[in-house]
Structure formats: C-alpha cells, structure tokens
Amino acid sequence: MATKTGQDEYLKLLQLALDFQNNRGTSFLEVLAAIFIIGTVLAVSAPILALVAASQVHTRQVEQAMDLAQSEIDLIQTRMNRGVSVRDNQQLPPKVTSGELTDAPPPNDIKDDTDSPAATAAFKVDVDKNNEPDFLVQTFRNKGMCFGSGSSNKEVAVFRMGVRVYSMAAKDNLMNNRLETQVASLQFSGKERTTRPLVAFYTEISRSDLPFSLHAYERYLAGSETNCSSDSS
After folding, report:
1. Would the pTM count as exceeding 0.90?
2. N or C: lower Cβ tally within 10 Å for the chain?
3. Of 197, 196, 181, which is closest to residue 105 (Cα–Cα)?
4. Distance (Å, rounded) from C-alpha 71 to C-alpha 64?
5. Do the beta carbons of residue 193 and residue 169 sit within 8 Å?
6. Which backbone phi and psi does 165 adopt, to 5 degrees?
7. What percent of the chain has pLDDT over 90?
8. Contact in structure between 207 and 158 (CB atoms under 8 Å)
C-alpha cells in the first residue's frame, strides 16, 4: 500500500512538472532534473513508509495478543468463581511443578484446542475467524492452594497463572525448540516476532467469595503446602 501511494505521488509530481514546462517554457533539462530529485526523494522515503506500515501491523498484533491473554485470564477466573474441584484438571491451566512461574519453559508442542495436557503445549487461536490461526497461546499455573475444609473442601482456592501469546509466525521455531520467553520489544522486529511472545501475563487467580478465602490466600502467600492431599496431578 505504501508503494502504491509513493507511485501516485510520483505521477502527480511528474504531471505538475510537465504542466509547469508547458505553461512557463521550462527547459526539458530542468524537467529531467526535477524528475530526478522527485525520484530520489521517493526512493529514500519508500523504505520508511514500508517500515511504518509494518510497525502498524505489529502494533495491531500486540493489541490483539493482549486482548487474547486477558480473555484467557478472565475465562479461568470465571471458572474459579463457580468452584473447581482439584480433580477437574481440564477446567484450569496445566501445572508447572517446580521453579518460578516466570521461568517456565516455552511451548514445544501445538494443540488444536484449549484442553492442553502439558504446560509446554500451546493451542491455536483464530481471532479473524478466517480458518487461519493467528496466534499460539500457552497457559500454565503453579500448584497453588486448595481449601481444606468447609463446603469447598478439595476445591482450588488460589494459584498464580501465566499466559504467553506468540504470533503464528513462531510456529517453526516452536517445533524446533527455539522459542524464548522474554517478551518481544515494542519496536518492530521480524526476528523477535518468530521467537518471542508478543505478550506475557502473570497474575493470581483466586476464589474470593467464601468466608475462608482470605485465610487460604494468606497461607498461599506464606508458602504453605497445599491442603489437597488427593491432588495427584
């Protein structure tokens, strides 16, 4: 689109130069000089216009990725508000069993839906509804804390969740175990787009509507062991 705009401007300026020649008697040499100057300006500006257009596309992708990551967090929070048994693993993201959540490895496998059996798997998302996936989404969580008594005994109380959203352009690097976890810079970079997540969110998800929710959250912050002795996943 940027190239077509540049061509249109070039033709307009060329026509102005020819009109000027006809109306004012400008020499043909002067017209050629004007054309040369115009061509030089366009040749210099065309890459800049192309870079601006590419940057706008990248910015739009980042905005979509942010919305997608937030929607995943909202979905899990909604499920938590309804109550999730520790045995119902498909309702929640897969677990990272050790280490800091931010240090969780990048995905190395692709699934067609959100029922991911492993924290290192990503699922495809088609935001444009054109039957062509646009993003790869990785969701995962830590072990968290479960309620140990009351009506919600053995239900999940709180955990920390991570969401990373990669461009579909990162698919080949994913399959070759070459993805990274550091978020791509806001400045446009074709290489970063194929190796790094566009966005990465980390946040606590909790069941906060119960009388003993605060106590469970305090135990979680203190690093206490989970009360879910039946949690074998």
Report:
1. no
2. N
3. 181
4. 11
5. yes
6. -120, 120
7. 38
8. yes
